[in-house]
Amino acid sequence: MAENLKTQDIIKAENLVYSKTPVLTDNVMHYCPGCGHGTAHRLIAEVIEEMDIQADTIGIAPVGCSVLMYNYLDIDMQQAAHGRAPAIATAVKRLMPAKYVFTYQGDGDLAAIGTAETIHACNRGENIAIFFVNNGIYGMTGGQMAPTTLPNMKSSTSPYGRDVELMGNPLKITELVAQLPGTWYVTRQAVHTPSAVRKAKKAVRRAFENQKLKKGLSLIEIVSNCNSGWKMSPVQANAWMEENMLPFYPLGDIKLEGNLLAKE
Questions:
Q1: CA dihedral (161, 149, 155, 145) positive or negative
Q2: 156 or 122: whose pLDDT is higher?
Q3: How far, CA to CA in Å, does 158 sit from each of 164, 174, 231?
Q4: pLDDT at residue 7, as a whole number
Q5: 195 domain-assigned
Q6: What CATH number should be reported for the domain holding residue 180?
Q7: Looking at residue 1, what is its pLDDT?
């Protein structure tokens, strides 16, 4: 009888190295190969599963690559108009304060058309989490220059590179909101290496835990690549990100437990 058992019948839980979290759906992700969005989705889903809050979590995603999130997380989701996710999240959280509410936004959405909603939600200290993916470009709509595009960085609307005198400086929105009294936890992470993924997951977990403790707003920036928009292979894009994005947008906690951290 034992000889007739199939391999999958004899796999024991203690021997299982990894299994996909049930908070992720079985839909095939449509992100470009090498994109950090899929990893960011997985980290959020895994934390929701580990905290056993799937039935109590509501996500808000607006326009851009982030809008695809509805297809991939098996939780209640609400779409917002471009840039308005923090406003919608504010309403949802105030109406249902026991729920875990988060926004998932790109840099063009959060730091351009949605700057006002972001700033004021942070200043009010709404008890929500904001997950902010920064790839320095408008990824979905054609690779245009974003508020986070680096000086001299090329895009479809800055083909010779971002001219700071003409186009202004990149907006370090994460450092900006860290100055506001309503933010409790502000950090910048990445998901391009195993070590970075582990740190990012801890940050995601802390954001949800802070919400449980009613500490105020947590903002998690995830610096990512956009290999399609940058016209590079995934490997090249990750290397370019480390050489150019991370020196300008350094990783690490900026504000912890309501206190700004001194720069090294």
A1: negative
A2: 122
A3: 11, 23, 14
A4: 56
A5: yes
A6: 3.40.50.970
A7: 46
- Could you give the number of structural domains in the chain? 1
3-state helix, strand, coil in the chain (%, to 5): 40, 20, 40
Domain that holds residue 190: 29-153+165-259
Beta carbons of 42 and 33 less than 8 angstroms apart: no
**pLDDT-based confidence at 53, cuts 50/70/90?**
very high
pLDDT at 11: 58
Query: Looking at residue 18, what is its pLDDT?
Result: 78
- 24 bridge partner residues: 73
Q: Going by DSSP bridges, is the β-strand pair 183-190/252-256 parallel, antiparallel, or unpaired?
A: antiparallel
Asked if residue 9 is part of any domain, the answer here is no
- The answer as to whether 3 is a domain residue is no
pLDDT at 17 exceeding the cut of 80: no
Neighbours of 8 (CB within 10 A): 6
Of 141-145, 184-188, 249-253, the poorest mean pLDDT is in: 141-145
Phi-psi region of 125 (alpha: psi -120 to 50; beta: other; left: phi over 0): left
Q: Is residue 22 part of a domain?
A: no
Mean pLDDT of 237-250: 97
Strands in 259-260's sheet, in edge-to-edge order, are 76-79, 57-61, 100-106, 129-134, 217-223, 183-190, 252-256, 259-260
Integer Cα distance of 7 and 13 in angstroms = 13
Ranges assigned E (strand) in 118-264: 129-134, 183-190, 217-223, 252-256, 259-260
How far is the C-alpha of 177 from the C-alpha of 183, rounded, in Å?
A: 7
